[in-house]
Amino acid sequence: MKSCKKLLAVLLAVLMLTALAVPALASSEEAVVITAVTLREEDENYVDSALYSQYETVEFSDGSSQTIDVDSQTFVLVIDGTVVDLADPDNWTADAELYVIDKGNYDTVEMSMNTANWGNFYFTGVVDLEDGVYQADRSIPAAVSDDAEITDEGIVGGEINIDASYISGIYVYNEDGSHHTIQDVTINSAGLGGNDFGTNGGWGTVISIAGSAEVDIQGVTVVTEGPLHDGIWAGGSSVVDVYDTVVLATEAADEYGFTAYSYDKFIIADELLTDEEIEAYGISGEYYAEDYESMFGSGTHYYYYNDNYTSNYSAPMLQCVPLALGLYGSMRACICYGQATLSFYDSLAVSDAWAVLSTDSGSGTLNGTDTIGIIGEVTEEENAEVTATVNGETYYINVYDTTEGSGYITYCDGFDDNFYGCQFYAPDYLAILTGGTFDFTSSDTQRGYGWSDRTGFMSHGSAYTMVVSHSDFDIADYLFTVKSTGAVDITVEDITVSWTKDNAWGGVLFQFMDNDDVGTDANDLEMDILDLTYEEYLANQAGSDDSASDEASSDASGEASSSGTVKTVTIKDSDLTGDIYNSTGSSNNTTTKDTYDGTTSYLSTWTTSTVAITLDNSTITGVISTSYAQHCDADGNAIVGQFFFNKDGEPIDGTEENTYDYLTSGRVLNTVAYNGIGQIEVTLENGAVWNVTGTCIINSLTIGEGCTVNGTVTENEDGTLTVEPLAQ
Question: Tens digit of pLDDT for each residue in 549-598?
């Protein structure tokens, strides 16, 4: 892969005076080279989909210059068959070819979670297929190898090398459902992307498909390097089928001067920098001031930048994964957006950060069959933890644990996600859910498999349906972590779970808990969490002076009131060892350090949250109980009161004593207890067995014919039941 190192682009040797994607040759004996490039002045504070589209004028060594209509055209520089950085003077050589190509005319994206200074999202592709035909005037044939065959039907064979940022390798767009094929192509793309939201295509992606296009991707290899530089992006209502394809994504943030919530020489400060700090950062001293309000109060951010640097000062949320998910990183290998349908078959996708097969902002469909998703990196055979053969080639992959990286395999935020016979490997989460439907099961040829060095499935939304079946898992801590008081429906059937670690907080099949994903800010901010003390937790028991409101509390029988919510969990045909806890009501995560006064009155609006568990022809060996949950540090020590977590645990607003790294999110110790908010109902049917291993408190127990509870049951005054192990 030809390397690409920085963001802004520049180069040339041959002056082109037409708007066609064909370079004009210099007529003089001495080669004409680029001597300067100029941004359109009024857009200097914008980052749009192609920095090339910002460059209005190019000056040459013979004293001439070329100015284009930036609204409709863009410069692209090519050297030795590779798109390169037009802004880099090292590329202003005699063998450079300068192209002027037409932009696509796409709408401005209006995203409420992102701040100001969005430009129009224009998309250019080395191969541009629009409206059912190959668009020569918006393509760069010089960056495609000669052995490729490009027609209106698509591209077959060849290699594309892009040493640049904010340009797609292949862009497909139409509104009439035209079909195209991308087959047996190798695409190497390196550079700094921007944000993979867009109405008509990915921003900084390698293969972008939008509108209602129908595309088959067959036997393709995509190698992408650089933050926010997706391998495959499917948006609009497109239908994309991916066969025998490999996507290898590397964040390489340091190489591109990228840190979360900032670009290159772009520093965010809460107060003006001193001259010494400006010199140490290597920036010009120019800055932009913007007032803000956050969970910690209000103030002013000072955005420092170099005077030749293009930036959208207020960084979009998805320049990196929101820290609220308990993650960090700035790379998604593949993404399905809007109402698109994106399906993978017998394929491999690897990313070294954030996500592999993600969804965002829509209600489309994401499918995978016999496909492998990994957070990790390609390595040598002797270092490989996973070996995968795709399209006749074998890949050796090192799977990251939480000491090596951070990320999830897939996401479901209102989509219909279906994975059949897939293998997922992740340091943090196999999947995150906020809504929609999710199915993880076997294919016609193999069972599903998941390995996580933290949690299997995490959800922080409601009203979703989830089925996990005919699959095997190796999990460190939690199989499911459900961070919501809302109603959900989860079924597990014919699964096995092996615990890979013996942490004080681990070995939990289901952890139902308060949402500690406060806020949606980026990686350099802190999440502010408040765990109630055990006494405060118990004070919320129904009937006490400090309890939740009458409408939200339990009645004397311990049953959920009509204002509460029910999470339905069905465990079928499985033999599992592990615990199940409902710890809802253990924390007050809407409180900030500035307003918390030590009382529990903030919980007055909470409703009951009941977990209704049915064991169907299954055996559970473990504790099933309501609980008080308290976050803990990496050594398993409980954290008392208010604390903060961020990417690396370095104090920002908190202190060294109560600031922890991102792994603190979702990591809790459980104490069996009941406060009237979190409730559990247990039903056994079809010969189910519950082997009780410790003290449990539940709200009801129904034992069907032929079922067994290996424990003693005692009814308490408040209507709850205490279940103890049988005496040995």
Answer: 333 333 323 333 346 889 999 999 999 999 999 998 888 654 443 444 44
8 A C-beta contact, residue 645 and residue 665: yes
Q: How confident is the model at residue 521 (pLDDT cuts 50, 70, 90)?
A: very low
CA nearest 668: which of 462, 532, 460, 504?
504
List Cα–Cα distances, 358 to 133, 204, 320, in angstroms: 29, 16, 13
User: Which residues, 6 or more positions from 30, have their beta carbon under 8 angstroms from its beta carbon?
Assistant: none
CA distances 130 to 213, 570, 571, 602, Å, are: 9, 48, 49, 55
Between CA 468 and CA 20 the distance in angstroms is 53
What are the backbone dihedrals phi and psi of residue 279, each rounded to the nearest 5 degrees, phi first?
A: -65, -40
Whole-angstrom Cα distance, residue 32 to residue 598? 73
Give the Cα separation of 52 and 74 in Å (integer). Answer: 6
Separation between Cα atoms, residue 581 and residue 560, nearest integer Å: 17
* Pair 105, 131: CB distance under 8 Å: no
- The whole-model pTM stands at 0.85
Residue-wise pLDDT for 232-256, tens only, equals: 999 889 999 999 999 999 998 888 7
Bridge partners of 697, per DSSP, are 722
8 A C-beta contact, residue 473 and residue 498 = yes
Query: Locate tokens 């090339």: which residue?
Result: 52
In this structure, how many other beta carbons lie within 10 angstroms of the beta carbon of residue 684? Answer: 24
54 touches 105 (CB < 8 A): no
- Residue 726: count other Cβ atoms within 10 Å of its Cβ: 10
Q: How far apart are CA 555 and CA 552, in angstroms?
A: 10
